[in-house]
Design a protein that fits this description.
The structure holds two protein chains of two kinds. Chain A is built from 15 helices and 18 strands. By secondary structure, chain A is α/β, with parallel strands linked by helices. The chains are: A alpha/beta, B mainly alpha.
Chain lengths: 418, 358
């Protein structure tokens, strides 16, 4: 299915929802529609299947204007998967999936044929829902229901599927399950996918192209790495993000970043070099003690990264399970330059994060006060064959202060403010 | 294993077993209807099942009266059979229209009167009776007035809920409630000034088959059968609209067309039923509920099942109305409300308790 949207505009009364949108959707592609709430994504989907009549511009489906097609013809082209579906009426899952065959049944007088039954069964087996075909739809969990709805969409044997935030009410395993299924339909059956998605990283992972809408206009269109740039995201969503590449899948990975350093009672900033959970208790201690805190370099998904996020403190971040890159290291040094004191937490040092010790050396060299928290006895932190231990010794001999216990940090730091 | 709502277990459905089950259910309901018909024919003061022994007939005498030529034949064929047939037609019409209304309003509390049919018909019937149109239109004055004022009322309610060709069902619903309240006041006002003539209106306002005759059967049968057939043919579309209008559209249904057809058909068959017998409540509300418990929500089985059982239910209710109080005939609306009210409350509580348990 090929769709061409040409200078489409749409209004609800006085309110203009879509403004002059032009977009070509090619056969077999997986395109994501993104944008803030109210940017017109769902309206665009509805115009595409002619549920809402476009007032200006044209929509061509396989070269035919969409408004010349009958509802049944449109239903044989597009199948829709909404955010969620439910009904108080006692339909079985089989009933629900069989509804997908409606556009293929010739007249009101004819019943379902063996062919329809076969399509329903295949669709339900494909989505692993056949085993509850006789159960009531309303008794299923959200994820199961969404799979039944996808089975209905498959039974409809459409040329394209329109998905409107299909994963918004699902937990993470449900999200991946649904998206993997949709991707398979796209790749194996050549079904064109147009999906409204909110989760940037889900969109980046699955979409061939992303169309970014903002206030009814098409802001950007292209491959995920071209659309999901910090600049575009800042201008559309108004948030600061860091964009990296997932080393395994090469998909771009977007992480939010809080840039505004909180102003605290002291006005004294302390930067923590931490990781692996070593920084959590110290962050809390210093936070409660009234210090402004920053931290680095932390991998996203590291528990210290989560701790830092909870406290809304600035972080030099790296994508999960990756070496500290030059960019992240530079960000770390910038944060160090803003703080008069640096705390080296007893984090496990490996080849990936050895650069954090180099950052400590940089701090010491630029005249900062460097405090090194001694690890608990018997807890080694050196995973680089002695290089970490020797570097720490070196730091101490060149002026860094070793703090035997976390609690003593506060008294050591209190001297700075005076 | 055949699927049924409430099985709960992981029963697996397939088209053959579903069809078999549907056929069995319809045959069962048809059998029940025929059985109820005969029981109703035999029930009453002239019949084997009579509340007092006065002129009780034996089954043999009753059969002879019904299928032969005895002194009882005229009574059976001119009075009781048309009355029972008409009760069946009205019950079928109300239950079928109720099923359609609950589907397009996506609300199991909807009934055929929700769009103003009953209050509209009441105004017409009361006007005809009080203003004395019976003088030149004969006994058909009241039904004719009731029928047309019901249709006009529905048209007003409907047009209040339509904007630019799109039917907004929630607005239709609220308009129906408001218009019904307004017309209820009009009826009360007329009755208040009508004085003693009010007595004649009570049976109609509560629903009664006491006046039913062959001419009623002939007038109502065709529209009701045709209307029920249309609702049945739209069964798949009614299924689809229960998943939401956008989903229905995406499954190839035109939701606005569907709503217009269903509202039109329901208004027509409900008005035709109500015009003759008055306001028989609860049948259109509870019969679809009972049938949904039995057959599920698929309207291709639910519509015929409700239609058949609506007929059975009202035939039985009328038989009770004829015989429950010795020497008198109760308006059938009292019987249906007496059964329907508590049953409906039971359903309501049960669903609430189930909802809590989830």
């Amino acid at each position: 299915m090929k769709a061409q949207i040409k200078s489409l505009s749409f209004s609800f009364g006085e309110k203009r929802i879509l403004k002059d949108i032009s977009l070509d959707i090619s056969d077999g592609e997986f395109i994501g529609l993104m944008g803030p709430n109210g940017s017109g994504k769902t309206t665009l989907l509805r115009c595409l299947m002619d549920y809402l009549p476009s007032e200006k511009g044209a929509i061509l489906i396989d070269m035919k204007p969409v408004h010349t097609l009958s509802p049944a013809e449109i239903a044989r082209i597009f199948a829709v998967v909404p955010q969620s579906s439910n009904t108080d009426f006692p339909f079985t899952c089989y009933d629900i999936v069989m509804m997908g065959r409606m556009p293929h049944i010739k007249s009101r007088l004819s019943g379902e044929t063996a062919k329809d039954a076969k399509a329903v069964r295949e669709a339900m087996e494909r989505t692993d829902t056949w085993r509850f075909s006789g159960r009531l739809f309303s008794e299923l969990s959200g994820g199961e229901r969404q799979r039944v709805i996808i089975a209905r969409a498959i039974a409809q044997s459409p040329k394209a599927m329109l998905l409107d935030e299909p994963t918004v009410y699902l937990d993470i395993s449900g999200q991946l399950e649904v998206m993997d299924l949709v991707k398979k339909l796209n790749q194996e059956n050549g079904i064109t996918i147009v999906a409204v998605l909110h989760e940037v990283n889900l969109a980046a992972k699955y979409c061939d192209r992303i169309a970014l809408l903002n206030d009814g206009r098409l802001e950007a269109i292209g491959a995920p790495q071209d659309v999901l740039t910090p600049e575009t995201i800042k201008s559309v969503y108004g948030v600061d993000v860091v964009v990296r590449k997932d080393p395994f899948t090469k998909a771009v990975y977007v992480m939010p970043r809080s840039t505004t350093a909180p102003v605290h009672r002291h006005g004294t900033r302390v930067h923590l070099l931490c990781g692996g959970g070593s920084g959590g208790p110290i962050m809390r201690l210093l936070h409660d003690g009234g210090y402004g805190i920053s931290a680095g370099v932390l991998n996203v998904l590291d528990s210290d990264y989560e701790n830092a996020n909870d406290l809304h403190i600035p972080v030099a971040a790296e994508i999960p399970f990756s070496q500290i890159s030059q960019e992240a290291h530079a960000e770390n040094l910038r944060l160090i330059d803003e703080s008069p004191a640096i705390v080296v937490c007893p984090f496990p040092v490996g080849p990936g994060n050895f650069r954090n010790l180099e950052a400590a050396r940089h701090a010491l060299d630029s005249g900062k006060r460097v405090l090194i928290v001694r690890p608990a006895t018997g807890q080694g932190i050196d995973f680089v064959g002695g290089k970490a231990d020797s570097t720490i010794k070196e730091l101490i001999s060149s002026g860094a202060i070793e703090v035997p216990e976390e609690q003593q940090l506060l008294s050591q730091l209190s001297e700075i403010g005076r | 294993m055949s699927p049924g709502p409430g099985d709960g277990a992981a029963a697996v459905a397939d088209i053959a077993s579903v069809r078999r089950r549907h056929r069995l259910i319809l045959l069962g309901l048809l059998g029940l209807l025929v059985l109820t018909f005969f029981l109703a024919v035999f029930t009453g003061y002239t019949g084997p099942i009579a509340p007092v022994s006065g002129d009780r007939l034996s089954f043999g005498e009753a059969f002879q009266g019904l299928f032969g030529h005895t002194s009882n034949s005229v009574f059976f064929w001119d009075i009781r059979v048309p009355r029972i047939l008409f009760a069946g037609i009205v019950g079928a019409a109300l239950a079928c229209a109720g099923t359609a209304m609950q589907a397009i309003f996506r609300n199991s509390m909807a009934d055929p009167f929700i769009i103003g049919v009953s209050s509209g018909a009441a105004v017409g019937a009361v006007c005809a009776s009080v203003l004395g149109f019976g003088a030149f239109l004969g006994s058909l004055a009241s039904p004719l007035f009731a029928f047309f004022s019901a249709l006009v009322t529905v048209l007003v309610v409907y047009s209040l809920g339509v904007v630019k060709g799109r039917v907004y069902v929630d607005t239709v619903l609220l308009s129906g409630v408001a218009v019904a309240a307004f017309l209820g006041a009009v009826v009360s006002f007329i009755i208040y000034y009508a004085g003693e003539r009010y007595d004649r209106l009570i049976p109609w306002l509560l629903g009664s088959f006491a006046d039913a005759r062959w001419s009623y059967v002939e007038a109502a049968a065709l529209p009701v059968v045709a209307g029920a057939l249309v609702v049945y043919l739209y069964g798949r579309d009614l299924n689809a609209i229960l998943m939401g209008e956008e989903t229905a559209y995406n499954l190839g249904t035109d939701p606005d067309q569907l709503k217009k057809v269903m509202l039109g058909v329901a208004a027509l068959i409900t008005s035709a039923a109500v015009a003759f017998v008055g306001i028989v409540g609860f049948v259109g509300l509870i019969v679809p509920h009972m049938m949904r418990l039995l057959v599920g929500a698929d309207h291709r089985i639910l519509v015929p099942a409700s239609t058949l059982f609506g007929a059975t239910f009202l035939i039985a209710a009328d038989a009770v109305a004829r015989t429950a109080v010795i020497g008198e005939e109760l308006p059938v609306g009292i019987i249906t409300a007496l059964c329907g009210g508590p049953f409906f409350l039971y359903l309501l509580r049960r669903n609430r308790i189930r909802g809590e348990a989830k």
